């Protein structure tokens, strides 16, 4: 009996030490490590509740961690989303560390804000980071005929040089349209035919042409990419996108959850798209079209303000941040189709590096390699090495290139600081949330038992209660004002009134004429904007 | 020819057995029924096509169809509705003449909009007509040997019955039974329609008022007339029969819906602020999702028809002007040919294009069927007031409708104005046209219009591809080599791949395969006279053909070595299968 007791204690000790090694680990976590941390975070007594929304085609859970206190669904909420791209393993870690820091260090924030953390929307693809064969995977485990030729996934990646990673292959050819970059000949760039440049290589992903259609790696063994299959600008019939938007169960499970959480006012997405280093552009012509493809002007102004706060909070200077959204992605969906304030960042990018002469390199890959060298990272490039390609007999084929993952995910040792800064940014965003208050409350006695009640409903926030687009959306509630008087005692003024929006630091004046005495309760708000209450003695 | 013989023999046999029966069954059945041309006069499945059926009655009819025509009909549930009702699909084909899924097929559905219930009847009528006429008319017999029909009489069973049993107008509900927060106040469905007078129809409320601008027509007190701008009236219009239950000053402003199941489909889907009535993402509506999954699993569907009401229209896409480029000339030619023929035998129906003749919408069913699946699809707006008096008095013409109710329906279509003590408006009068009038056919017009629309679908289905290997020519090339050239003919209007299908490679190519021969090389022949060919270097014995055009041919060629007998098979998802043997 004693022995058992002792071994239990030892076991607990082991568990504990394992947990601490997890924190000090040297690489991005495996899915099971992610799951363990989520479970640990949401134990009894924790303000975080973990729910599996569904399982992917690959049998992996789609988790949401709801973190809050009290009347959680009626406090403004922020959703934080990671794993939007399966190869962007950093994003999962950032979402996870945000959750951990929130619960352990910043739980006071939960008095006013509820958080919804979706740590990993692409668990099927995420696994590839830790698999025997590593490559930048986007798709889930669904079976898809990407090149639409009647055969499913017949031309996926192939580890031709048996090094356990998928890079590129180049085929020497006078008909090639790629040429080595001057500043770093390891990098191939497209020959600029308009300048009379001549290519010398054809370039493909490391793959075969098993169906002999002349194309390489055009029908990958992965399925549908979460970040290419949402409804905004859905790239129908393109590889990894599918035959219609939101075709995958994990996408629908997440969207259904979001649509049911009326209190979410903003979404922060960790994915390659970035509107935090610089805001999206306003295009008046596109903003007037029936199908909107530009943010509306007032929302661009908000984006710009929040971007300013991001750049103050994050020490890393923006560099090569040109991705402001791709077709069918999540980050644009959150604004254009969900009407919420949507902010996205990759969390990290290779900083600007200079060449030997102190000049910028321009080309992002060359810049990355130069930066990696400065950092002493020697294992980021597979040198071009000739192989015998079974589908290209007699041709000079070389496999090589930048290793998968490294351009999107920094060495794990850098993640702690990135996570700390991004946590701070999200908390600052929470501090800005819409905040409704009553001011200038007046009760005036009219004769014969009538009282006029007047009050200003003030939004004490730099953000409006509704994005400009959100005002048009049926998926954001209007500000509703209720007065506790019976209809028969309301001489003037409405028992229920709906207000479209209250702007940043703006007010709207309310007034009623009521009959009788006692006290009256007035409540104004909406789930995503919070509520203000007022008790008036007549 | 064989069928004719068979019918003849059977009829003769029956006549001989009964002895006393002097007339052929083909004219007088059961000693009782003399055939009206074109209609089954003694059907195995008895249905009255002059009334509307509830889900219960529909299922009874469909089960009866399976029992009476086991070789022609199968019934399956393709999924559940929001409220858990089955969505039934009848598969109708000659199951003894090949597998259903191997034949070019047509999909027909009705009732996507809950109040548009004649589509259900028309869909079922078409199924009934085909199975009852099989073996009686060569044309129909042949059609069911060649083709498969999938009938979904209602793809919205919940609200199909709710339209009939619940408090509704002729235009409600448009959606299924899901409830949302229509007025944006955070509550769901708190202010639905109220049938104050308990007659099952939501009509109108008027109130006596010295300041009103309406009077009742002294010649016909059912009719309200607007007085002149300088005249005094007697009544004011309050609006729809109902209450303001949630105290927001609006009557009936948050009932079931709002959403439009016909804004829920996955081609160029747009959210509600762009396209009112859309929900969360394509196929949010569970009934639509079930249909979509069925369509995805049945790539043999080459033609489709959906039924709506009303206005007498044969509609094709695009639904939205932004999609104009989707419908190209090659496909529009085929749409035009079938629909213009339909106009000829469907009086009162006009062939129109949704975005320019009706309204511009995203996420419609017909756009997904065509844009997303490459299926030639029409949507008919059933019932037109033209059917009343063969005049074009226009939609909702009150004078004409009153005349119909006076001379044809004898007061059955109208609720006479009757006083009611309204808790919010005081003394009002409630009355107006019933929900089963206006958009819906009156009973006596149902069967005729059902038949004409069925005929349109039969024409449409007839024109799905019909493939055959018509010619196989051999040429000796010497050295033990032989050149075999085969011609594949599609003797109908619709190609195996619409141009939309080809543009996005929606469906796999057609395969033309030779077996029993050693293939040295394989080609598709672009121009036989000048020997222009395109070689397929990989697997030349199984040639991929992008498309077999309507009323057109594709020629393929193999160089083979050695002799012996060989066979050629054609395998097309939408064109069916055919083969040829030496």
UniProtKB/TrEMBL annotation, chain A:
<comment type="similarity">
    <text>Belongs to the peptidase M14 family.</text>
</comment>
<dbReference type="Pfam" id="PF00246">
    <property type="entry name" value="Peptidase_M14"/>
</dbReference>
<keyword id="KW-0732">Signal</keyword>
<keyword id="KW-0378">Hydrolase</keyword>
<dbReference type="GO" id="GO:0008270">
    <property type="term" value="F:zinc ion binding"/>
</dbReference>
<keyword id="KW-0482">Metalloprotease</keyword>
<protein>
    <submittedName>
        <fullName>Zinc carboxypeptidase</fullName>
    </submittedName>
</protein>
<keyword id="KW-0645">Protease</keyword>
<feature type="domain" description="Peptidase M14">
    <location>
        <begin position="27"/>
        <end position="306"/>
    </location>
</feature>
<dbReference type="GO" id="GO:0005615">
    <property type="term" value="C:extracellular space"/>
</dbReference>
<keyword id="KW-0121">Carboxypeptidase</keyword>
<feature type="signal peptide">
    <location>
        <begin position="1"/>
        <end position="24"/>
    </location>
</feature>
<dbReference type="InterPro" id="IPR000834">
    <property type="entry name" value="Peptidase_M14"/>
</dbReference>
<keyword id="KW-0862">Zinc</keyword>
<dbReference type="GO" id="GO:0004181">
    <property type="term" value="F:metallocarboxypeptidase activity"/>
</dbReference>
<dbReference type="GO" id="GO:0006508">
    <property type="term" value="P:proteolysis"/>
</dbReference>
TrEMBL record, chain B:
<keyword id="KW-0482">Metalloprotease</keyword>
<feature type="domain" description="Peptidase M14">
    <location>
        <begin position="51"/>
        <end position="414"/>
    </location>
</feature>
<dbReference type="GO" id="GO:0005615">
    <property type="term" value="C:extracellular space"/>
</dbReference>
<dbReference type="Pfam" id="PF00246">
    <property type="entry name" value="Peptidase_M14"/>
</dbReference>
<dbReference type="InterPro" id="IPR000834">
    <property type="entry name" value="Peptidase_M14"/>
</dbReference>
<dbReference type="GO" id="GO:0006508">
    <property type="term" value="P:proteolysis"/>
</dbReference>
<keyword id="KW-0645">Protease</keyword>
<dbReference type="GO" id="GO:0004181">
    <property type="term" value="F:metallocarboxypeptidase activity"/>
</dbReference>
<comment type="similarity">
    <text>Belongs to the peptidase M14 family.</text>
</comment>
<keyword id="KW-0732">Signal</keyword>
<keyword id="KW-0862">Zinc</keyword>
<dbReference type="GO" id="GO:0008270">
    <property type="term" value="F:zinc ion binding"/>
</dbReference>
<feature type="signal peptide">
    <location>
        <begin position="1"/>
        <end position="26"/>
    </location>
</feature>
<protein>
    <submittedName>
        <fullName>Zinc carboxypeptidase</fullName>
    </submittedName>
</protein>
<feature type="active site" description="Proton donor/acceptor">
    <location>
        <position position="381"/>
    </location>
</feature>
<keyword id="KW-0378">Hydrolase</keyword>
<keyword id="KW-0121">Carboxypeptidase</keyword>
């Amino acid at each position: 009996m004693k022995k058992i007791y002792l071994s239990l204690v030892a076991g607990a000790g082991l568990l504990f030490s394992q947990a601490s090694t997890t924190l000090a680990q040297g690489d991005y976590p495996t899915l099971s490590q992610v799951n363990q941390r989520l479970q640990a975070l949401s134990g009894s007594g924790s303000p975080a509740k973990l729910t599996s929304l569904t399982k992917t085609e690959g049998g992996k859970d789609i988790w949401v961690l709801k973190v809050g206190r009290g009347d959680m669904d009626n406090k403004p909420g922020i959703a934080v989303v990671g794993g939007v791209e399966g190869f962007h393993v950093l994003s999962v870690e950032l979402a996870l560390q945000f959750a951990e820091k929130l619960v352990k260090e910043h739980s006071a924030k939960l008095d006013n804000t509820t958080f919804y953390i979706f740590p990993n929307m692409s668990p099927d693809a995420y696994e590839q980071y830790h698999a025997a064969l590593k490559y930048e995977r986007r798709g889930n485990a669904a079976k898809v005929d990407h090149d639409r030729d009647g055969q499913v996934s017949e031309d996926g990646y192939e580890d031709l040089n048996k090094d356990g990673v998928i890079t590129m292959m180049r085929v020497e050819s006078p008909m090639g349209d790629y040429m080595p970059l001057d500043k770093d000949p390891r990098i191939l760039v497209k020959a600029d035919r308009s300048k009379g440049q001549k290519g010398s290589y054809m370039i493909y992903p490391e793959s075969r042409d098993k169906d002999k259609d002349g194309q390489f790696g055009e029908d990958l063994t992965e399925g549908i990419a979460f970040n290419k299959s949402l409804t905004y600008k859905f790239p129908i019939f393109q590889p990894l996108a599918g035959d219609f938007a939101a075709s995958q169960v994990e996408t629908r499970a997440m969207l259904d959850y979001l649509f049911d959480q009326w209190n979410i006012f903003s979404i922060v997405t960790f994915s390659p798209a970035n509107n935090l280093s610089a805001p999206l552009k306003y295009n008046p012509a596109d903003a007037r079209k029936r199908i909107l493809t530009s943010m509306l002007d007032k929302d661009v102004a908000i984006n710009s303000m929040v971007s300013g706060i991001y750049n103050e909070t994050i020490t890393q200077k923006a560099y090569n941040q040109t991705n402001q959204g791709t077709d069918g992605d999540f980050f644009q969906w959150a604004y254009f189709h969900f009407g919420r304030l949507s902010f996205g960042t990759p969390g990290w990018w290779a900083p600007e590096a200079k060449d030997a002469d102190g000049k910028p390199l321009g080309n992002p890959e060359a810049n990355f390699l130069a930066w990696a060298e400065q950092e002493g990272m020697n294992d980021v490039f597979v040198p071009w090495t000739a192989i015998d390609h079974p589908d290209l007999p007699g041709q000079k084929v070389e496999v090589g290139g930048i290793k998968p993952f490294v351009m999107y995910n920094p060495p794990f040792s850098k993640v702690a600081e990135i996570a700390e800064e991004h946590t701070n940014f999200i908390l600052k965003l929470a501090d800005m949330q819409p905040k409704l208050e009553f001011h200038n409350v007046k009760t005036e006695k009219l004769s014969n038992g009538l009282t006029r009640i007047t009050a200003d409903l003030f939004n004490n926030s730099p953000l409006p209660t509704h994005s400009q687009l959100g005002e048009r959306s049926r998926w954001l509630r209007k500000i509703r004002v209720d007065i506790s008087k019976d209809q028969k005692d309301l001489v003037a003024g409405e028992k229920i009134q709906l207000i479209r929006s209250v702007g940043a630091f703006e007010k709207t004046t309310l007034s009623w004429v009521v009959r009788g005495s006692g006290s009256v309760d007035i409540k104004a708000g909406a789930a995503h904007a919070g509520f203000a209450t007022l008790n008036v003695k007549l | 020819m064989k069928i004719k013989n068979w019918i003849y023999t059977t009829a003769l046999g029956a006549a001989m057995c009964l002895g006393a029966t002097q007339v052929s069954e083909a004219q007088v059945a059961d000693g009782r029924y003399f055939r009206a041309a074109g209609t089954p006069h003694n059907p195995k499945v008895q249905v009255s096509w002059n009334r509307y059926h509830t889900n219960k009655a529909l299922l009874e009819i469909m089960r009866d169809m399976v029992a009476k025509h086991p070789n022609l009909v199968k019934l399956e549930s393709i999924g559940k509705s929001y409220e858990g009702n089955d969505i039934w699909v009848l598969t109708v084909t000659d199951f003894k003449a090949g597998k259903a899924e191997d034949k070019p097929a047509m999909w027909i559905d009705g009732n996507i909009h809950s109040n548009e219930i004649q589509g259900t009847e028309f869909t079922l009528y078409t199924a009934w007509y085909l199975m009852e006429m099989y073996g009686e008319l060569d044309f129909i017999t042949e059609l069911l040997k060649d083709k498969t029909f999938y009938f979904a009489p209602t793809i919205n069973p919940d609200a199909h019955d709710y339209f009939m049993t619940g408090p509704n107008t002729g235009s409600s509900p448009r959606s299924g039974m899901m409830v949302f927060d229509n007025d944006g106040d955070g509550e769901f469905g708190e202010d639905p329609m109220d049938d104050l007078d308990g007659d099952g129809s939501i009509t109108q409320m008027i109130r006596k008022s010295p300041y009103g601008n309406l009077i009742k027509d002294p010649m016909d007190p059912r009719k309200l007339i607007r007085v002149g701008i300088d005249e005094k009236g007697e009544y004011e219009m309050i609006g729809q029969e109902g209450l303001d239950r949630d105290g927001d000053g609006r009557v009936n402003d948050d009932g079931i819906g709002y959403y439009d199941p016909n804004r829920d489909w996955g081609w160029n889907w747009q959210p509600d602020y762009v396209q009112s009535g859309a929900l969360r993402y394509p196929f949010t509506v569970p009934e639509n999702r079930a249909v979509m999954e069925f369509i995805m699993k049945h790539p043999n569907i080459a033609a489709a028809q959906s039924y709506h009401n009303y206005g007498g229209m044969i509609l094709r896409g695009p639904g939205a002007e932004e999609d104009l480029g989707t419908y190209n000339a090659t496909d529009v030619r085929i749409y035009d040919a079938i629909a213009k023929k339909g106009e000829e035998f469907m009086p009162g129906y006009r062939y129109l294009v949704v975005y320019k003749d009706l309204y511009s919408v995203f996420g419609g069913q017909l756009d997904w069927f065509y844009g997303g699946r490459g299926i030639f699809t029409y949507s008919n707006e059933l019932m037109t007031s033209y059917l009343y008096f063969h005049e074009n008095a226009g939609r909702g013409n009150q004078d004409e409708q009153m005349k119909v109710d006076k001379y044809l329906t004898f007061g059955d279509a109208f609720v006479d104005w009757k006083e009611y003590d309204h808790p919010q408006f005081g003394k009002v009068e409630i009355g107006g046209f019933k929900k089963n009038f206006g958009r819906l056919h009156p009973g006596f017009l149902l069967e005729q219009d059902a038949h004409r629309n069925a005929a349109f679908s039969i024409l449409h289905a007839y024109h799905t591809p019909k493939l055959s290997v018509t010619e196989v020519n051999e040429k000796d090339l010497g050295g033990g080599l032989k050149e075999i050239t085969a011609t594949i003919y599609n003797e109908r209007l619709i190609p195996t791949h619409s141009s939309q299908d080809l543009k996005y490679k929606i469906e796999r190519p057609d395969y033309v395969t030779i077996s029993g021969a050693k293939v040295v090389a394989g080609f598709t022949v672009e121009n036989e006279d000048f020997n222009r060919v395109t070689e397929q270097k990989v697997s030349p014995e199984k040639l991929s053909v992008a498309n077999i055009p309507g009323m057109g041919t594709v020629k393929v060629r193999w160089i083979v070595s050695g002799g012996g007998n060989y066979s050629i098979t054609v395998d097309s998802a939408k064109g069916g299968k055919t083969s040829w043997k030496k």
